[in-house]
Design a protein that fits this description.
The structure is a homotrimer. Chain A has about 325 residues and is of the alpha/beta class. Helix content of chain A is about 40%, strand content about 15%. The first copy, chain A, has eleven helices and nine strands.
Chain lengths: ~325, ~325, ~325
């Protein structure tokens, strides 16, 4: 697999995804057996303009498990108070002398691509604004592959903030590559899927259904879907219609009632952190795989790092 | 020694403490000879909801000296601004996939216990609110053992903020395990030892004396005590009685005058950082062991890490 | 080379600089070949009271490339909220038990010297207030040596904030050690070189010319100089004379026009980050070496670390 940067879901084709998943399977063995020396002598720089301990720790743990080193900043725009920060481009060029791969999180969509244009070393997009979060989507896809045995033909309900979740956005691009996919969009009115993604899916043969209301048909859908993919519902999106927000918070919830209707071999996913949208009572159910996602994410990021730094097991 | 988590002083019995101290002695040799490979391939995560460079660096240095790796956050509640942070429990489960041991500092008493109930990996309490700081107390106890040759029969004066110091609180639980202990509580009126600890010590056969006034009998006590354990006096505790605070700041001080009356084989301890409560002139005196405490702390934390990760020298 | 601390430019003589540059040349090979084991088992602590990702990453990368470990804080004055931070001296003594070398950045001039007086381990000054930034100046000097083949006889224009740039200040002390140096000071009126440095250079036989006006003779100088050393111009220094600031921002710029007049074997340097004082169009010119400076800086810091920790290739 030729992998120069990881910028967006669109850059991966089905063949690459398959190779990546095979590599991730092998990484799982390393996780179980302890540290490897695969990336000994390599340095990863975490450059987080927006702090996120989970994502940062996931990449840094992946690098450590492979025997590499980590330089870390969760306030990447901090400079001597006397000086004005330079451009993202200058920072990226500079960091390329210190590290062998840069993991970038930035508040602005398109930042990862901008960075990749000037960088001396590979860039991994760890989330840029509301645009994309491709490694989250890769781990989501890998989770479906591992838990359901394949992706073709999957029926998936995307629940929550479809408008602003970059994880869901990136996942959408991936799903469009597979055949026989059916997607149910389930969101309160202000948070429906954006038009460009709807058209992209439509153009790529994905069958979809839109359920935009304050009372989502979760228990009904439960009988049909293979995957519930749930995300947080942000209060800010409701403006002063706080009643609607409170209703949504109560309604868009996977709980015992939904569990009861779900198919035996279906799964519940969540990118975490969660608020109340998945009830704690669900955690013990074998179909709740959101913590397994964390584990698969570690494996996927190890696979990406080893592929991008051109080292194989 | 079976050690699953390090949560509070009460979990250690005298036999465990002895084993731990023997292990710490051996760790001292590693510190003197440079890095060991004992914890190679293991990852420690520092999860500090309240920043504390000293405690964090102590654990991280201990892990490095043993050949392990470190993931670090001193703002553990930082998440993407778009999302609300999840629960402590979810964070702990997640981090358990990235690290082999979690060092937790949190602003809320009881957090370490809560974390241990869901964690996949060992939790070490690095201070939770005003509740406990067991590794600080372990290093304090180890310092007494090393400097005085034993703990039974020790006469100790606890000086300063007895009400809120979690170090002193945790140390109290440890002292109660030994025989013949005499404790002098020395504090300005609002900062006396809390009733629950007084009763705990009393029930466990510790003899104690309370000296609560603005003029502490430090020079008098100096003739009797083996250990002065001194802590910062926080201004906030005095409300608007700033005169009393100023008086306390001047009076609760170990200085040349106190040194003069102290026994030859006694010691002065302080958990650091200090303000003016130990005068700089005291630093050169051989009985001032607060920087040695730092060294013993490194050894104790190395011992805890190697015991908890089930690796022995 | 006997190197105990790195505190200020004045501590280095020409012989030491030559040795250091030879060592840096060898470090360049390590950078090209991947990690070395030279500093295996050693720990570096970054203690940054003022955050600066670039300088911190440069030192930490240097330590990693040599096989050492890193403890890192970019908010070195963070302590438990309940406690008041202790003195710099107490912190430095404490950190000396956790690390084998301390890299210190502090807002107060003279801090590195204060630290060195009490420290158990070597101190490297990574910038203290507006006083000095000796490792930046060392890498600047090394850049001139590498790019021009020598330092004696060099004609250099220092452009921008001469009054407050500690990089330029430290570089001044170094230049005074070489013979036949000519310096052009080029600055807007409020930012001219301070009198003490002017006298120091004068006393040490450096010939200098002062160009303090709102219209700097950059294109004219371009014909004569071997080095343009450019720095940011801070708005704050202009008080309410914002017009003068705007004029300076437009005038103190290396652009295509200046490039055209420059000698073939001359160079443009900048300590970075930059604002508009070097136009992006300059980046592609072979005489623009500000990113090479980053690389040379890594080599110099590796050389300093290996010399100070008494390990040689």
């Amino acid at each position: 697999m030729e992998l120069k940067h990881v910028l967006e879901a669109q850059q991966f084709d089905k063949k690459m995804l398959k190779e990546l998943f095979t590599l991730a399977d092998r990484m799982e063995e390393i996780v179980q057996n302890g540290e490897s020396d695969l990336l000994r002598g390599k340095i990863l720089a975490s450059l987080f303009y927006v702090p996120s301990n989970r994502t940062r720790f996931s990449f840094e743990s992946a690098m450590c498990r492979l025997g590499g080193r980590v330089l870390s900043s969760d306030r990447a725009d901090s400079f001597s108070s006397e000086l004005k920060a330079g451009s993202l481009e200058d920072t990226i060029i500079t960091m390329g002398y210190y590290a062998d791969v840069i993991v970038l999180r930035h508040h602005q969509g398109g930042s990862a691509k901008r960075a990749s244009k000037v960088s001396r070393v590979p860039i991994i997009n760890a989330g840029d604004g509301t645009a994309q979060h491709p490694t989250q989507a890769l781990l989501d896809l890998y989770t479906i592959e591992r838990e359901l045995g394949g992706i073709d033909g999957v029926v998936i309900a995307l629940v929550g903030d479809l408008a602003n979740s970059r994880s869901i956005r990136s996942l959408g691009y991936f799903l469009a590559k597979y055949s026989g996919i059916k997607v149910h969009f389930v969101a309160p009115p202000p948070l429906g899927m954006r038009e460009d993604m709807v058209q992209y899916l439509s153009k790529n043969g994905v069958i979809f259904y839109e359920h935009y209301g304050l009372e989502p048909p979760l228990a009904d859908l439960a009988r049909k879907v293979d995957v519930f993919y749930v995300t947080q519902i942000p209060m800010e999106s409701f403006g002063d219609r706080l009643d609607d927000y409170e209703t949504s918070k109560r309604q868009f919830v996977i709980d015992r009632r939904v569990l009861k209707s779900m198919k035996k071999n279906s799964i519940i996913m969540h990118p975490l952190p969660r608020q109340s949208e998945v009830a704690p009572e669900v955690d013990k159910d074998l179909r709740a795989v959101y913590f397994k996602q964390v584990h698969y994410g570690l494996c996927i990021r190890m696979a990406l790092l080893s592929a991008i730094l051109k080292k194989r097991t």
